[in-house]
User: Which sequence fits this backbone?
């Protein structure tokens, strides 16, 4: 069983910071890919009595976006090389290999994609389509579309997972380090994952290793309540 996040007792009053949290959380909504040397391998836990299958959310609705250059030819979160002409997509919590039919709720178009990446890290968006997938749905011009997701291989989608809360992404490593250190006074573990956005390195701050999405969402709520995060995104690590 993958242990849940170990919460440290709060020791003393936190030292006052000269830089506000709002300033450090700039760039927190970026969906980009891990730098190959920084990717940490999180193997999927084996199903068992203490590791139930993840409940499948059929019919998830929200906004779809798409991405192409400069990510074409760069590693995705799964380790695959991103091909903007393949029918793939990024999702924050569905296991890699999940096949999803994406239904455009406005124009009636649909496309089938395979999840091989993580994102998008923008509030309200639920899936990031490849260039070709977005083109087939006629959404290149608008950039986003209202969609509903249909899971086509629920056995894969229900695979047990490890979940964390992403609280920010920064161009300056020092900002990521500062936020990590502040959060680590109360919550553990806190990791920084670096990724190449195409125009330079960025650094994501992620908190926790939870065995369920619900536990990760509760952790996100606690982080916000403690004033340690504004936008939070539950993301699957494996």
Assistant:
């Amino acid at each position: 069983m993958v242990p849940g996040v170990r919460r440290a007792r709060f020791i003393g009053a936190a030292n006052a910071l000269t830089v506000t949290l709002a300033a450090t959380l700039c760039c927190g909504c970026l969906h980009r890919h891990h730098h190959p040397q920084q990717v940490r391998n999180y193997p999927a836990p084996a199903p068992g009595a203490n590791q139930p299958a993840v409940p499948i959310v059929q019919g998830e609705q929200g906004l779809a976006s798409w991405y192409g250059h400069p990510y074409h030819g760069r590693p995705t979160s799964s380790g695959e090389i991103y091909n903007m002409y393949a029918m793939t997509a990024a999702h924050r919590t569905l296991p890699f290999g999940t096949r999803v039919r994406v239904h455009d709720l406005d124009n009636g178009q649909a496309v089938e994609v395979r999840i091989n990446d993580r994102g998008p890290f923008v509030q309200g968006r639920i899936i990031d389509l490849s260039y070709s997938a977005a083109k087939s749905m006629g959404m290149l011009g608008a950039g986003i579309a209202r969609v509903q997701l249909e899971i086509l291989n629920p056995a894969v989608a229900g695979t047990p997972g490890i979940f964390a809360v992403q609280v920010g992404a920064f161009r300056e490593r020092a900002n990521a380090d500062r936020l990590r250190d502040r959060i680590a006074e109360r919550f553990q573990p806190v990791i920084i994952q670096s990724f190449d956005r195409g125009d330079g390195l960025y650094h994501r701050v992620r908190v926790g290793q939870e065995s369920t999405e619900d536990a990760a969402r509760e952790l996100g709520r606690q982080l916000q309540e403690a004033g340690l995060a504004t936008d939070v995104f539950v993301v699957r690590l494996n």
